[in-house]
Amino acid sequence: MTRPPSSDRTRSPHPAGPVPVGMAPDPDADGRTPSAPKTRANAVSKNSPEIRGGIHSAKPQSLRRRILRRPTTGRTGAVVAGVLTAVFLSALPAAAEPSVGSSPVVLSRIVGAPEDHLYGLAADHSAVYEQTGSNTHWEKIGGPASDLYAGGAGLFATRPDTGALYKYDGTPEAWSEIGNAGTDFAVTDHHVYGLTPDRIAVFEWEGKGTEWKAKRAPIVSGETRQAKLERMKQLTEPGLPATSDWFDALSQHLQGVPDPFVFDWANDGCSKVPDTFQGFDFKNACNRHDFGYRNYQSLLGEQNFLTTSVGQEAKKRVDDIFLQDLQAECNFKMWPIDPRSDFSRQQCRRIAKGYYEGVVNLYKG
Fold first, then answer.
1. Would the pLDDT of 36 be above 70?
2. Catalytic amino acids?
3. Distance CA 289, CA 280 (A)
4. E-strand spans in the chain?
5. pLDDT digits over 1-26, tens only?
6. For a tag on the chain, would you pick the N or C end, based on fewer CB atoms within 10 A?
């Protein structure tokens, strides 16, 4: 990477540096520049009347001529040299010393984005800064971050404590979480990609919320694929043991533990219908249903999931546990006092049946 211009760029090519205006050595009367600056001590002997009589004593005519008729070429040359030096320095780029106001900012990393946007991460990772166009001022736009990623799709940063990925919304201090931790991320003109913690799968952000989809599925053998299908069946079986197993696997994923099966854990709740109803929460049931659909579609193919016997059997099982999980929420009673009435519980069951029938009828082969 090309090193940003530093203050060394402004140094004169001469070892002594540029000669300040008005400080050039005076030439002799014959126009030659002496090797040492002239002083009265070496211009007049110490026994001369000028030294004996003091500085106001009469001076010889030759000395007065030397003082009164100082050639102007040396001073003019110094003025010209000073002007040229000033012009030369003004043409150089400013020293690469980012600042906020008058305080310098030490950066550990910079990334660029379209329309001459430049972003920097503080050396201590305490803040994110932005510089636009030809402006040399850096504006703070965010707090602590582990790393920055930028491209046509925008600016993104990872949170130091959790590793979660955030997108800059375009206003200072306004950021939105879009995904969990990953080993690495890449930003292109229109997309954002993440490498899973176990480094064997790539996911693509779908551009809204926290939805990601598998972009580059890992290359696995038939045996590994079969193992994933068997594990999916274990996690989508009816009954409490499979439900507890799924919640345990979800908890491991949220804690950043690598998933040996590289399942897609992306979720968005109940999507187009409400997540809750009068104190009943359907979100976990919807997330588990999405988990089943997405991973079976990835393993079998979207069309095979709907049309083949293996896919239809898997879809029916996933739909059935969806109704099971919804009804379990309706039947659950808080202890010691449940504020939800029996009437609201009956309404909850009707809502649950409607959600179930909706997915059964919407996704048909």
1. no
2. 289
3. 17
4. 99-100, 103-104, 107-113, 117-122, 128-132, 139-142, 148-151, 154-158, 165-168, 175-179, 184-187, 192-195, 202-205, 212-216, 276-277, 280-281
5. 433 333 343 333 333 333 333 333 44
6. N
